[in-house]
Amino acid sequence: MRHIISILMENESGALSRVAGLFSARGYNIESLTVAPTEDPTLSRLTLVTRGSDQVIEQITKQLNKLVDVVKLLDLTEHRHIEREMMLIKLKVQDADQRAEVMRLAEIFRGHIIDVSAATYVVELTGDSDKLDAFVESMCHFEVIEVVRSGVMGIARGDVALKL
């Protein structure tokens, strides 16, 4: 099962390496990973997506809690939550019909065309991973030059929060 784990950790060199090393040493895969400083400059928030049985995820969270750099963590999939990912996709557009079709699909998916050249469009899109996958699929009739995705970010709904 897919799990989104949010981690508050010390904003120090090597902290990310120790988290990634834990996954690597135990043979667990990280599907996506985002990290950035929080409002407290001494802390960073890391959000990672991994897959595993409940037993595996329990083992992962226990091991993460043992790391000195990890201050607190929350498995967002145990709570109602919001998740978002950002994608930039560069497409080759050769004529007015293709430009119009890309604009139409970008509008349907609530995306934005953020760069235009004589032969390319860059579309910015945010949403959950399924939405981004669906947009890429809808672009199958175009030449996709490049796709860049941010990785999943998430936040719990309601009173649940990852804070000190």
Walkthrough of the structure:
The strands form 2 sheets. Strands 5, 6, 7, 8 and 9 form a 5-stranded antiparallel beta sheet that branches. The protein has helices at residues 15-26, 54-66, 96-108, 129-138, and strands at 2-10, 32-37, 43-51, 70-75, 81-92, 112-116, 120-127, 143-149, 153-156. With 164 residues, it is α+β, with helices and mostly antiparallel strands. It is elongated. The mean pLDDT is 96. The chain starts with a strand and ends in an 8-residue tail after the last strand. The longest helix has 13 residues, at 54-66.
Features:
29% helix; 164 residues; single chain; alpha+beta
Helix content: 25-40%
String of helices and strands: EHEEHEEHEEHEE
Low-confidence stretches are none
For the record, give the distance between the C-alpha atoms at the N and C termini, rounded to a whole number: 28 Å
Structural class: alpha+beta
What's the gyration radius in Å?
Answer: 19 Å
Mean pLDDT, all residues: 96
Strand content: 35-45%
Largest sheet: 5 strands, antiparallel
> What does the overall shape look like?
elongated
Please give the structural blueprint.
Elements: E1 2-10, H1 15-26, E2 32-37, E3 43-51, H2 54-66, E4 70-75, E5 81-92, H3 96-108, E6 112-116, E7 120-127, H4 129-138, E8 143-149, E9 153-156
